[in-house]
Amino acid sequence: MRIVAKGLTYTYNPKSPFASQALKGVDLTIEEGEFFGIIGHTGSGKSTFVQHLNALIKCTGGYLKVGYYDLADKKCDFLELRSKVGMVFQYPEYQLFAETVAKDVEFGLKNFRKDMDEKQRAQAVREALETVGLDYARIKDESPFELSGGQKRRVAIAGVIVTKPEVLILDEPAAGLDPLGKKELMELLHSIHGGWCKTIVIVSHDMDEIAENCTHAAVFSEGKVVLTGTPPEIFAQSETLFSLGLDVPTTARCALLLRERGIEIDTDFTCDDFAEKVLAQWRAAGMPGKTGAGQVAERTTSGTESDINREQAGGDGDAE
Amino acid sequence: MEAVRFENTKFSYRDDGKDPAVNGVSLAIEEGEFVAVLGRNGSGKSTLAKLVNALLVPSSGKVFVCGMDTSDEKLAFEIRKSAGMVFQNPDNQTVASIVEDDVAFGPENIGLPREEIGRRIEFALDAVGMQAFRHSAPARLSGGQKQRIAIAGVLAILPKIMILDESTAMLDPKGRREVMEVIKKLNRERGMTVILITHFMDEALQADRAIVMHRGEAVMDGAPEEIFARSDELEMYNLTLPRAAYVCKKLQDAGMPVKNAFTAEELAEAICASLQRG
């Protein structure tokens, strides 16, 4: 489903002393098949925008279409829309509530898929839990509150993807996880992207995460979209991002500093590509000061293998 | 002087003492040190933190805080005055509807006279740069501001040690920077002992010392630069390098002569030096 917003506006607490306009005319198109990143300061309107996408916030000004659902139309079938546009909030583990993992994951199905019987629902719950990398038989009867932080988050995500939404929106999905947990979560998202889940939209403060995972991204500022493009296109404009008080990926900051010294690195801002491009320049310069570290490179391939896989996953996303 | 000493400290959440969350940690933290504690989720970092201010007491072994034994119940109150804790979620640590009342909560509880409480609020809000918000409602502040208020609330008790348990995890980059600046200032200018538990490798780089926890044990302990130079070991403990260090290592592995770098600035410097050598 293609997402198209034109002149979308939204005001919290309208006609009151606390009125604040969160969206001031958002124009943005997210094509089906994208792994889309939304970047912006706290208060830039990005959360307000994504909550419009499954009508948690009703469209009150402007134009918004998700697939053929016209969200500005009061007659729009919001229940059906919500079963197709899944939303994972920040720290979704805080929303776990049921006494067992299976019941928690099943909750969405009971609401959205009244046509399913108990057996079908159990099967869907099993699939969802297996998709997020959990052992169904072992975990289904556990209390979700007894699990580790990373597992809780996976259960919470399973509870959203159990209805197999075509569009999955995640607000800061990796926040608070340790570095390996973050990586595993991103791998999980790539593994479902392109199957029944056609489009993924993530909101993130982590620019490295955007550079490494997204096909396209948009930068929000003061209720508007100020930049859109592929991550390399966006991060090539580091100065603009700095002026908006935003960060850039580590490699972009490094590239900017090198540019000041007359060295241009043409990179997509992922760490692996950046290293490759630097090495290419070094080789072109005749490998000054080469150290006999060839063997070292052999020894450490295990560390880079998973990164290569991730790159490939990202590449598949691009191809669609 | 020693601020904290662990002596073969063990702690298990289970009655039978199995699966210890902290399994035989022995180390000392000097007064005025800024220590980052790293490790995967479930490695025992938070348990270690809670042992410092006697929220938990060891199942076996000892923990001393400013010379006080945490397993002595009579000392718990004094220990908590010496070691203040800031948690992850700012919303869970606010007790009052006005900033200054919130900061006053600690001093009121230790029974300080009214004038002294006023001075403490003044001091604490100044230290975190939140004087202007004295009469605001915490609910209307940003995450970074709320966390600074939480820090002020701890500061108002004038603790010698501040423990921050992933206190920047829920903040945006700006909020994180604000809180890190406040912590560094307290450490540098007031000699506050800081124990910072974090998943952010760039925050660990700002500390004097980093301790890596793995399955309840302190497996690495040293200057952050020294720890991050031991990348094979880090990988064993499922920790990742800061991105700049990762790129640097890739270059070194391919034979490019670059100095060890941990930040974007250092990396640019190292690449520049290496490329312009020829």
Overview of the molecule:
The complex is a heterodimer of chains A (320) and B (278). Chain A has 320 residues and is α/β, with parallel strands linked by helices. Chain A has a single domain (3-250, 311-319), classed as Rossmann fold, CATH 3.40.50.300. Helices cover 44% and strands 19% of the residues of chain A. A six-stranded mixed sheet of chain A has the order 6-7-8-3-9-10, sandwiched between helices. In chain A, strands 2-1-4-5 form a four-stranded antiparallel sheet, covered by helices on one side. In chain A, β7 (167-171), α7 and β8 form a beta-alpha-beta unit. Chain A is globular, with a radius of gyration of 22 Å. The model of chain A is unreliable at 294-320 (pLDDT under 50). Chain B has 278 residues and is an alpha/beta fold. Chain B folds into two domains: 2-240, 3-Layer(aba) Sandwich (Rossmann fold); 241-278, no CATH class. Chain B has eleven helices and ten strands. In chain B, the strands form two sheets. Chain B has a six-stranded mixed sheet with strand order 6-7-8-3-9-10, sandwiched between helices. In chain B, strands 2-1-4-5 form a four-stranded antiparallel sheet, with helices on one face. In chain B, β7 (161-165), α6 (173-190) and β8 (193-197) form a beta-alpha-beta unit. The longest helix of chain B is centred in the middle third of the chain and has 18 residues, at 173-190. The radius of gyration of chain B is 20 Å and the shape is globular. The model of chain B has no long low-confidence stretch (mean pLDDT 92). At the A-B interface, α7, α11, α12 and α13 of A face α6, α9, α10 and α11 of B.
The largest beta-sheet of chain A arranges its strands as: 6-7-8-3-9-10
CATH fold topology of chain A: Rossmann fold
CATH topology name of the largest domain in chain B, in short, is Rossmann fold
Average pLDDT figure of chain A: 88
Specify the CATH homologous superfamily of chain A: P-loop containing nucleotide triphosphate hydrolases
- Major sheet of chain A: 6 strands, mixed
**CA-to-CA gap between the ends of chain B?**
51 Å
Helix content range of chain A: 40-55%
Protein chains sharing the most extensive interface: A-B, 52 and 47 residues
Mean pLDDT of chain B, to the nearest integer, reads 92
Fourth CATH level, the homologous superfamily of the largest domain in chain B: P-loop containing nucleotide triphosphate hydrolases
Q: Work out the oligomeric state of the chains in this entry.
A: heterodimer
